[in-house]
Amino acid sequence: MNHVGTTAPGQTPAPLLAVRNLSVLFRMRAGRDIPAVSDVSFDLAAGECLVLVGESGCGKSVLASALLGLLPGNARTAGTARMDGLDLLAAGERTLARTVRGRRVGLVPQSPAAHLTPVRTVRSQLAETLRELTGARRAGMREATERAAARAVFPADHLDRYPHQLSGGLAQRAATALALVGDAPLLIADEPTTGLDRDLVDRTVDELRRHADDGRGLLVITHDLAAAGRIADRVAVMYAGRVVELADSGDFFGTAGPRHPYARGLLDALPERSFTPIPGLPPELDALPEGCAFAPRCGNATARCGTLPPFAGGIACHHVPQAAPHA
Q1: Banded pLDDT at 6 (limits 50, 70, 90)
Q2: Of 57, 77, 61, which is closest to residue 283 (Cα–Cα)?
């Protein structure tokens, strides 16, 4: 489904987030460099949801951490990620802490329990976030915290519990509630449906979708392709640190289907489809081949795949013709 709003004829609005040639490598002992993200470029518009999919270890979460300056000390970044005139990759910690995190960019973290303060209740953490990001006053704070919790389907009768008293699913919903408080122009949600049953998955992604429908940007990282199909305007498929396909959601999940063989394999592995797993395993990032990283697992591979396919026309594959440009 496509949710993006229309633009007046002749107008091309500037993207909310413009990522160009983003690369991340980790400098290891003995001088080894491990490329975790390689040459990723995309735009994200206000009112749009872009979903990143791919197997574990393909670089999705590293990309999100780079945008927020949350990488470990041995990480090195290249490229740009511009938002409202600010290059997020070049910004210092003071700028990121005071003006970006929570205010310009919200985050639903992949490991919510690690991001919740263990010695404070969920209510107190929500109240503090409300005061910092919205200026809410003590009067009416109880009602405000309960409204904030309800946005993430977090039960009001659990607000006075500590993080260690929460299940994984409840911790996930608490982290989502905290991320939504500031109504940041851009929200990054890293595996926001982990630990949730199907009904709660649908309710959570619908609330995230409303964040985009209100004119904000939404970048979602997920293994849940059903959730992706429910929420996405566009889908970016990552493999071995690269984006190998970028497609409209309607085409990707519809009759046309994915164009890259890896992306087709992801859908074919679903139980409601052919339930056929992709053979083999992803390569180790410190031992990537010179050419196409997917070639050892691909039934279409030829000698031509010994060279790295460029990303052009929304695809990085030697054997798939480029899509015609949109009118």
Answers
A1: very low
A2: 57
